[in-house]
Structures are given as C-alpha cells and as structure tokens.
Amino acid sequence: MREEGKAALEARYRARSLWLDGIEGSLAPRPSLPGDLECDVAIVGAGFTGLWAAYHLARLQPDLRVVVCEREIAGFGPSGRNGGWVSGGLIGSADTYEREKGHDAVLRAYRETYAAVDHVGEAVEREGIDCGFRKGGSLFVATTKPQLARLRARQRGLDAIGLGEEDSRILSPEESNAVVGVEGCLESSYSPHCARVDPGRLVRGLADACERLGVAIYERTPVTDLGPRRVVTPHGTVRADAVLQATESYSVELPRQRLRYLPLYSLMIATEPLPGHVWDEIGWTDGVVVSDMRHLFFYAQRTRDGRIAIGGRGAPYRLRRPIDPENERNADVRARLERVIRRHFPTAASARITHHWGGPLGVPRDWSMAVHFDRETGFGWAGGYAGHGVVAANIAGRTLADLVLDRDTELVHLPWVGHRARRWEPEPLRFVASRAIVRILGSADRSEDATDRTARRTRLLAPVLPPH
Ligand SMILES: Cc1cc2nc3c(=O)[nH]c(=O)nc-3n(C[C@H](O)[C@H](O)[C@H](O)COP(=O)(O)OP(=O)(O)OC[C@H]3O[C@@H](n4cnc5c(N)ncnc54)[C@H](O)[C@@H]3O)c2cc1C
Fold this sequence. Notes:
The chain is of the alpha/beta class.
C-alpha cells in the first residue's frame, strides 16, 4: 500500500460518512502492530462486532490480554457509516430460526434484541459517549395500498410470534402524523424498541472505552490471513488462545471466504442542518426514526445536529470490484433519496444535500445472521447482519465474549449461535442474483407507485430472498 500523507489520510477517512466527517478530534490512526505478539484474545476488525466483543471481554475479565487489529481506523467500515438505527427486531428469517431452534427461541431472540437497545444506551451512559443516543422508537409508514398490505402482514407476523401492542402497533394517519409527519401516510406501525444515534461517535467512543479498559487497538494493520490461534499481518503475527473474526462484509476479501456473503451496498445522503421552524412544520419527534414499506425502502433519522440523514439500497453490484470506494456513491440512488425527501418531507425539499456516502452490507445466502465459536480451536466469528447490524453486533460481541469465557448465558442459546447458511453461488451467478434483486425490486416499486397495485414480479426473487 502506498504511504498516504497525514492530511490525505484524514480527508479519506472523513469522506467515508457524515458521521466520520463530524468527529471533532483527529482521525489520525493509532499505532500499527509493532511486531510479533502473544495475547489471550485477538480480534480482527474494529467495528461494532469486534469492539463490543473486546469491551465485554475486558469488563468480564480485566486481566485478559485483548488485542484488536484493524486495517484502517476504528469505525472505518459500516459501523462508522450507517443510518444510526439502534433497532430491535429479528436479524434474519423467523422461519429459518424457528425450523432450527423452535418457536420459543425466536420469541426469546426478539426480546434479546429489544433489551440490546437499552444495553447500548447503558454503555453510552456509563462510558460518557456523546453520540446523541435517543430512544424515540421507529415508525414504518405505508404510502400506497401495496405497502399498506405489507405493513399489515408484517404486524400480523409479529402478533403471531407472540409480541404485543407494547412492542409494535398500528397507527392511524392522524396518530402517525403526531409522531412524524410523513406526507402521503396511509397508516404506520410504531415500535418503541429503537434509538437514534450518531454511529460514528458511538463507534469511536467505544474504541476509546475499550482502550481505557486495557484493550490494545492496532490500526492500519491489515490482516492477510487468520485461523485458529494466529492472525497474520505485514507487521507481524499475533498468537492468541482465541481468535475472533469481526470483518463482516469485508470477509469476502479474505482467503477461502469469498462466497460467505453478498456484499450489497447501502447508500445515504444528508441535508444541511434544518432550521427549527422546518422541524416544527414537519412535526418530527426527535429520536424517532422513519422508514417506508417499499421493497427498496428508505430509512431516515433526524440527526443530533438537525439534519435529515436518509438511506436506501439499490446500488448495482460490480462483478470485478464488489467492494470498492467507487461503489459508495451512485447518482441514481442519490436522486431517488432526494425524491423521497421532496415527496414525503416537502417542507425540507429545498435543503442543500451536504453529504453522500455508503458502505457494503454482509448478506448471507439465507439473509440470517450467525455467531460461531469453536471451543476446540478457539476460533470464532460473527456477521451476516444484512444491513441491520447495529444492535446485532452488540449482541454478537457480547455472545462471543461469553463463548470465549465459557459462560452459559441466555445469549449463547440464541438461534443464530451455530447457525450456518450455505455459501453464495460462484460468480457470475452471485452477480446475476444481486443485479436481479436490485432491478426487480426497483421496478416493482415503480410499478406499485404508478398503479397502486401489488407487483407480483418480486416472486421471481423467492430463491434468493429470505422466507417470510
Ligand atoms: C449505509 C449503511 C446504513 C446502515 N444502516 C444501518 C442502521 O441504521 N441500523 C443497523 O442496525 N444497521 C445498519 N447498517 C449495517 C451496520 O452498519 C453493519 O451491519 C454493522 O456496522 C456491522 O458491524 P461490524 O463490526 O460487524 O462490521 P464493520 O463495521 O464492517 O467493521 C469491520 C471492520 O473490519 C475491518 N477489516 C476488514 N477487513 C480487515 C482485514 N483484513 N484486516 C483488518 N481489519 C479488517 C474494517 O476496516 C472494519 O473497520 C447500515 C450499513 C450501511 C453501509
């Protein structure tokens, strides 16, 4: 890798997202691994998964020697770029988990994700992380009849699992508008189990908290190979009793893991800070995050500094460079997100767009997350959050910590522990599947917007989308 100057490096990191751009201190990397080293637990990747694992290991057993190797800087990946939804809810297919572990396990999993939202909030409080964590809940709005049908089906699904009104409930347009005024809302569902956060500040604050607990974080330390008890980097090899891989979507760049995930990009834009009267006119309760029920849905938050930050999927997968900085911006997705602002938040229509960014999601073949730890070899990994990793990574990190320390907690019995998805098909089939997902979902949305009738073409995607 060519040596970048300090200023260029800082600019490259800030350009990754609104959140990293807004970090007040320097983003200068911590020192790299100084040479060969021995420790108790070596973690690869300083995103939420790796850092929550390190944080809990260090809290549970303060004398444990924990080392984190990060290719760039803490929070460089999606953990420092996401929509800031700290959102409870199943990360994967209820059908898949129920088949493998039974109905009660699915219900327990939901409950754990809800509790994890507060878990994150408590850690933020304990560590004094100034990241705008505010638990206002989430609002899913339907703005067409097909979306309404999906919204109600989703609610029926949650009811059938055994969740109650206190977890998710349908709101009339009037009730909905009292929470967030979304133009064209026919009905919505509201869940209190969600917080808004500035994820850049959270992940960077978490890295600092880990260091205060004695965790060693080495940045600009790319791992070129890893396996039981060893982590190989150009700066030296780390030998450890336990090795945890926390590289999520980037895992596809590591030897033997190319087909573990489909790295699909999710992209975001942010407006300039909006004046108070615009927020009053929209009627957007601070701390509530909003999404819709399109196939290529949008997700949005009112940021701690008064912007609309909104994201969506739909960027085309590139066969030769599935993970590449060039994939982080896309004119079509940006234009679609700008249209969403104009259509659903017209008072903010003239706001300037100041940031556009994105990052890769780790999508497993069955869209269901997994946490693994092999006691024999001491090797573990977690990921496959398919774009819902903020809470999932907290749960996965804590679960990995419990597994390493051989603690028999509720977490180690959740349905994703030990879950295995089959690999994606080799290229060009994975490429064809990903292009089909984006094209068909996009065209179904356009058709539904134009006709107000459910587009049936999404059935074509049944073999590559998760069972409902
Ligand atoms: C635009 C966008 C919006 C999103 N919005 C939300 C949201 O609102 N809510 C939600 O729940 N989820 C959201 N997600 C998903 C969520 O951000 C991720 O699931 C989560 O951050 C994954 O965390 P992680 O720690 O597992 O992985 P990452 O954040 O990807 O961290 C992995 C780290 O490993 C490092 N790494 C990779 N390879 C190597 C190597 N070889 N050697 C050393 N280090 C390496 C990377 O540099 C990176 O820092 C969004 C994602 C994106 C891209």
